[in-house]
Amino acid sequence: MSSAQNDYFQLFALPEQFDIDTRLLEANFRKIQSTSHPDRFVTASAAEKLASMQLATLSNEAYGTLKNTARRAKYLLEKHGIDAVADTNTALPMDFLMQQMEWREQLEDAKTAKDIPALDQLHHELRTEARSLESELADLFDHAKDYATATEVTRKLIFIDKVCADIQQAIEYLD
Amino acid sequence: MALLQISEPGMSAAPHQHKLAAGIDLGTTNSLVATVRSGMSTVLQDDHGHALLPSVVRYTPDGTVIVGHEAQAQQSADPNNTIVSVKRFMGRSINDITDRAHIPYKFVSASEDLAAKVLQIETRAGLKSPVEISAEILKSLKHRAEKSLGGELVGAVITVPAYFDDAQRQATKDAARLAGLNVLRLLNEPTAAAVAYGLDNASEGNFVIYDLGGGTFDVSILHLSKGVFEVLATNGDSALGGDDFDHRIYCWVLDKVREVTANFSPLTEGDTRLLLTKARQAKEWLTDNFEAQVLCRLSNGILVDVTLTADQLVEITQHLVIKTLSPTRKAMRDANLSISDISGVVMVGGATRMPHIRQAVEAYFQQEPLTNLDPDKVVALGAAIQANVLAGNKNDDDLLLLDVTPLSLGLETMGGLVEKVIHRNSTLPIARAQEFTTYKDGQTAMSIHVVQGERELVSDCRSLARFVLRGIPPMAAGAARIRVTFTVDADGLLSVSAREQSTGVEAHIEVKPSYGLSENEITDMLKASFSSAEDDKKARMLAEARVSAGAIISSVTAALAADGSLISEAEQHAIKTEIDRLQTIAAADDATAINQAVDALNHATEAFAAARMNASVSQALSGKAINSLEM
């Protein structure tokens, strides 16, 4: 596989930036799958089947990465040589840490009370917070090119994603 | 120019010829086979005009095997040798079968080590695995299709519940191979239904497929757009279906009979079967009627005469209906959609004819569910459409299915915890790698335990396979880096490999759990079923090898002519050398050598195939860029 196509942005013919046209991403993802999906190569040679499997797998991984904003930000940082989740990269402002603890407590309380509406409400609150971090990231990546601050905001977004996943899981067990 | 090719008689179809392919719905209660004829997907009927083949297999005293209506008619008379709802046991161990008391079969755990796991049923024809029993149903459908189409099937698409785990999928694929079917693809039932429904109605938007079959419940949410069917989320319960409603009615009837009968003796297996049949008939009758009479005489002479009303049916089974809504909500959350985003809800499976199920679904989605396609046939119809596409018959619809893995896949880590490697609802095919390390100083082997499920504890998930990576160089705990790669193909089947990064020591396993059959077992069974002489087999193998040699030579030659410029002259030359070599070998009579040369040519063209794939993707995208400028 050529290196150009190992770049997720190039693969989908998108500019390398945080603020991407998600409709174009979806459309191009479907186009790539339409061309490369293993269903198109059921009767093909083993070499063609292998190439199909590799490209379809790559485009699924790439699509998953660019579709999710936290993963997209983390991927952009990797392109700039920064590992957002490295053990050395632990700095987060105190107010965010406090905020995060508060969310965790709310999650635990709602879980204990088996209160699904409260969990839904908390989830909604976190998504709203995530959206404001996303617009910050668009500015940091695409205009200010401030990757240090972008790393911090990305870490916040990853934290929020984790709490959201835990909320979803809690709802699932209660439901 | 390549020489014109003439095929062996009866061996290969000319490229323009319609290839015979079928879609098979291997159901818990009934099975069907469908095919695309003159552009229309059609369910094939048997000689008596029946479309549904009851999924019932009977091993008769004279040694024959009977499948379908005739077997079903004998189930009360010969319950131990007449197997119904075998799909419930596919890929399952004895411990998985919780309601054994109500099932009239003698279950046996096959071998000791291969797991107190492989479940078998004792019949007068000997021990039979669910895979073998299912293969009888598939053989019957294959026979029906070939008789009706007048030729050998090139391949078939077999449907499975979306919520089937890896063991259940593998068992289904084994059954198909045992029946002599070339499996083009395992297709999830709700996705198949969406294809039949979506193409029929030219739909766009988000659709929910609510599929309550005889023994399984699936709910899938798909996004339909311009012939692409993208599964956003799937959920379900692989042990919940119409059978459970029958069972509830059966228990209710027994309670009623006990109330009025003193000294009610235990039921015989035949009585159990008879009452379950009566329960099913009562359930079906109540779809269009207010009350149903359950009337029969048991073997001990007791007369059962009970009336069940539609309201009573709702009362005793409403908890089962409610049980389907929890997976539905989970799927909606995973798809990240709300009720207002849903354009339509399609009902699939005979059990969805029950009015209280339709009402519950309508109440949840706030819209009337779509029932314009026969819920019994829609899965087979969709499978036939996909089979037609996969077999390579020209299809103007440009249909593409993007399906997902229904359950998360992971590994056991210290303390019996699960580390998920692939999360549920990931689009297929997918490959994911994760690094693990050693726990003790000097540890030279690592046991890899692959599990499937959503829970945190290994004990709450399904164990799929275990294998050991040996030869890790002794290092301090935590220093070794073992990269474990999970790959799930388009059939939803998993393979796992592990590699120690510094030495490159590797171990690999196709996850063929103890539930399925080993490659050797299948080969032995297939051999036993072939009556043809050894010489015939050899001739056939040689003919087949030559056909595949011819096919690859012509396709590579054509590809080189069209796209040779994508690779260097040296690379082109290397491929041409392999072509010449294969041509020489194919002229001789050694099938094994021909197959090896085919493999060698395949290997030589891997980089070329990848380059062509990249080029066609770039072309597809540049086309889009022009379109988007026009918009």
What order do the helices and strands come in, and which of them pair?
The complex is a heterodimer of chains A (175) and B (631).
Chain A: H1 3-6, H2 8-11, H3 22-36, H4 46-67, H5 69-79, H6 94-112, H7 116-144, H8 147-174
Helix pairs in contact in A: 3-4, 4-5, 5-8, 6-7, 6-8, 7-8
Chain B: E1 21-25, E2 30-37, E3 40-43, E4 53-54, E5 56-59, E6 65-67, H1 69-73, E7 82-84, E8 106-109, E9 119-123, E10 126-128, H2 130-149, E11 155-160, H3 166-178, E12 183-188, H4 189-201, E13 205-212, E14 217-225, E15 228-237, H5 242-260, H6 269-285, E16 291-297, E17 303-309, H7 310-335, E18 342-348, H8 355-365, H9 378-390, E19 400-402, E20 409-413, E21 417-422, E22 430-436, E23 445-452, E24 462-470, E25 482-488, E26 494-500, E27 506-510, H10 519-529, H11 534-563, H12 569-587, H13 591-604, H14 606-630
Parallel strand pairs in B: 1-11, 11-12, 13-18, 15-19
Antiparallel strand pairs in B: 1-2, 2-3, 2-4, 5-6, 5-7, 8-9, 9-10, 13-14, 14-15, 16-17, 20-21, 20-23, 22-25, 23-24, 25-26, 26-27
Helix pairs in contact in B: 2-3, 4-9, 5-6, 5-7, 7-8, 11-12, 11-13, 12-13
Mean pLDDT of chain B: 87
Helix content of chain A: over 70%
Strand content of chain A: under 5%
Oligomeric status: heterodimer
Would you tell me the structural class of the helices and strands of chain B?
Answer: alpha+beta
pLDDT < 50 stretches of chain B: 1-15, 624-631
First-last Cα distance of chain A: 45 Å
Biggest β-sheet description of chain B = 6 strands, mixed
- In round numbers, the mean pLDDT of chain A is 91
Q: Could you say which overall geometry of chain A the principal axes of the C-alpha atoms support?
A: globular
Give the termini separation of chain B. Answer: 43 Å
- The unreliable regions of chain A are none
Q: Which percent range fits the helix content of chain B?
A: 25-40%
Biggest interface goes to: A-B, 42 and 56 residues
**Radius of gyration from the alpha-carbon trace of chain B, in angstroms:** 27 Å
Q: How do the SSEs of chain A run, as a string of H and E?
A: HHHHHHHH
Number of β-strand runs of chain B = 27
User: How many H/I helices of chain B?
Assistant: 14
| Secondary-structure class of chain A | mainly alpha
Number of helical segments with 4 or more residues of chain A: 8
- Strand tally of chain A: 0
